[in-house]
UniProtKB/TrEMBL annotation:
PROSITE patterns found in the cross-reference section: PEPTIDASE_M14
CDD domains, per the entry: M14_REP34-like
Domain Peptidase M14: residue ranges: 30-306
Domain of life, per lineage: Bacteria
Coiled-coil regions listed: none
InterPro entries the record matches: Peptidase_M14
Similarity comment: Belongs to the peptidase M14 family.
Descriptive protein name: M14 family metallocarboxypeptidase
Organism this protein belongs to: Dokdonella soli
Amino acid sequence: MTTPAPYPIGSPGRPWGEAEVAAWLSRQTRQRNYAADVLSVIERLHTRFDVVEYGRLDYHPDAYPLFAIRSRDWRDELPCALVTGGVHGYETSGVRGALQFVDEHASRYEGRVNLLVAPCVSPWAYERIHRWNMHAVDPNRSFRENSPAQESAALMRLVAPLRDRVIVHIDLHETTDTDESEFRPALAARDGKAFEPGEIPDGFYLVDDTENPQPEFQQAVIAAVANVTHIAQADRNGEIIGSPVVAPGVIHYPFKQLGLCAGITHAPYTTTTEVYPDSLRATAEQCNAAQVAAVCAAIDFALAHR
C-alpha cells in the first residue's frame, strides 16, 4: 500500500495557525467568474422572478453580493420550498442545476408553493473552484449559531423568518475526484490529523438526516434521478464515503449536529444531493439535469404529502 505524501502546507500532527492559512490562501487563484457565470443568469431570470440581495461577502480586496431568487407570486398562505447550491463553491452542477431548475421548471409551481433558491452560496470558492472560503473554513460545517463563515451566516439570516414554513429543502452538492486528491488531504492537514484514503463513489447518491429520516422521500428522488444518470453503488463494506448505505443510493448524516446547510430549517423533507461529475458514465449536462430532476422530485413529493 502506498503511503500518501504529506500535504505541502503545515507539519504532520499540528493544526494550522495563521501562517499556514496564509500560505494556503496564497495558493488560491481565480479560475472562473461569478459575475459572468452566475450573476448574468440571475439578471436574465429577474424578468420572471423576484431577486433579493441577502448579503455581501467582504473578502478584501473583493466583495461578492449574495442573491436569492424568489417566486414573483409569493403568497404568505403558501408553504415554502428551499433550494440551495454552491455551498461548496467548486461543486459546479449544484450552481448550474439550481439556475437551470429556476429557468426551466419553477414556473409550474406558481400558486402551489413559494420558491426560494440560493444558487451560489459561496461565490469566492466558486471562482477558485474550492471547498472552503478564504479563511480555510468549510461553509457546510458552519451552519450554526455564531457561524465562522460569512456565507453560512448570511443564508441563515435569509431563511430564519421562514424556517417553520419550509416543507422541503434540497441542498445540491457533488462528490469529485478532487475530494480525495486535494480536499480531504487539506482537511486532515488543517486539523493536524492523519489522512486516511477513501473511495470516491461512481454515481449519484443522497444524504438523509439521521435525526429525521424520510426513506420514501429519498427513494422518490432517487427514482427520478435514475432516469437521468446512474445511482452510486455501495462499496465492498456496504458503504458510501464511509457511511452505511441504508437504501439504494442513500446514506445518513446528522444535519444539525454537523452544521450542514440541509439542517437550517424545520422542514419535514430534507436532503443533500451528491453528483459525481468525474464519472466516465456521465456528462456535465447529465449532472446538471440530475440536480434538476432531484429538485423537481423533492418538491413534487413534499406537495403530495403535506
